[in-house]
Amino acid sequence: MLESTRDWVIIIAGSLSILLLIALLAFTAVVGLATRALLGSVRRLVNDEVTPLVDSMGNTVQQVRGTASFISETSVRPIIRVYGVIAGTRRFVGVVSGISSRRRKNKD
Questions:
Q1: How far apart are CA 76 and CA 37, in angstroms?
Q2: Structurally, how many domains does the chain consist of?
Q3: For the whole model, what pTM was predicted?
Q4: Is-contact 100 94, C-beta < 8 A?
Q5: How far apart are CA 98 and CA 64, in angstroms?
Q6: Per-residue model confidence (pLDDT) at position 49
Q7: d(CA 27, CA 30)
Q8: Which of 29, 32, 30 is nearest to 40 (CA)?
C-alpha cells in the first residue's frame, strides 16, 4: 500500500510540475509579446512626438542666439564705443590740463 501511494504522489507531482512549466512558459511568452508591443509604442512615440519637438527646440535656440547677437551688435557695442570715447576724452582732457596729476598729488 505504501509503495502505491508513493507512486501516485510521484505521478501527481510530476504531472503538476509539467503543468506548472507549461503555465510559466505561456506567461513568459505573453509578457515578452506585451513588452515588444510596448517598446514598439514607445519607439513610435519618440519618433513621432519627441524628435520633432527636439528639432523645434534646436531651431528656437538658434533663433535666440541670432537675436542675442543682433541685440549685441546693434545696441550694446555702440553704447560701449560711446562710453569708451567719453572715457578716452576725459582722460585726454585730464592729462592735457594736468587735473589728474593734481589729484594724485593731493591723495598722496
A1: 55
A2: 1
A3: 0.47
A4: yes
A5: 48
A6: 85
A7: 5
A8: 32
